[in-house]
Design brief:
The chain contains 10 helices and 8 strands. By secondary structure, it is of the alpha/beta class.
Length: 313
Amino acid sequence: MPDYSRLIDAETWAFIERTNAWYPPNAIDLTIVEQRRVYDRMCREFFAGYPDGVNAETTHISTPTHAIPIRVYRATKPDASAVVLYLHGGGFVVGGLDSHDDVCAELCQGTGYDVASVDYRLAPEHLHPAAFDDALAAFAWVARTYAQPILLAGDSAGGNLAAAVAHATRGHKCVPIGQVLIYPGLGGDTTKGSYVEHAHAPMLTLRDVEFYRDVRSLGAEAKGDATLWPLADTDFSNLPPTVVITAQYDPVCSDGETYRDRILAACGKAWWLEEPGLVHSYVRARHTSSRAAASFSRIVDALNALGKGQWPY
């Protein structure tokens, strides 16, 4: 097993230890209710506030069966080139509008684009495809509400949902113009690559990954279901220009490389960056880790470029 105490720098270790103090490494052994309680507490501990020049409004999307809360961030000096649909991380089990509130506000400030964050339904109360259905409904809402083209973005589980929406909307009249996926779990082969090399990494282990996979669908997964795992798709053509940014010491890192390769093989545009020395969920360390701060700047740059129809990769 890699010696993470030697490989990971002091700033990142401080972030890991601070996270573990609020959200313990064995959190998946807690009840779902307790997992959410400690996760929400950890998110409040890391909350950095809104940057100047950003406001947010929370509303909801009405569906025939339920309402989907959505929070829209707007810059006082907006850039109308695009709008971002953001799907939060949390293993499909934890998280919501507040867990990534400051992250979305800073993405809005860094791009000038409106950012719409979706409070999709969580497992196990709402099994697959509930979260995907909500993400797709949010995409349709953004398409109806905005004249601007849509960018998809998300971290971890949210990266999975963003990619699933990209696959599902290829025939939509308002196809997304790009997607930025941050350490996404896309359903790669857990018997090789980073899943094996970093099975015991800080912040996310293979055991965690398997727990989140099982709780989302209770283990009942249809073969080839790209709405569940985008890498299960058999067709990677006509996807929007894609930027995938992963962490080096993260079991799901290989998914980014695999996803890029499949899009390139289908003659699409895709770029994958493995951020050296970083761990899963590092975006929350963007104010305390120089590595995380630099990566967050690259995420903002990717959204800026794709929103303006540029491909600097």
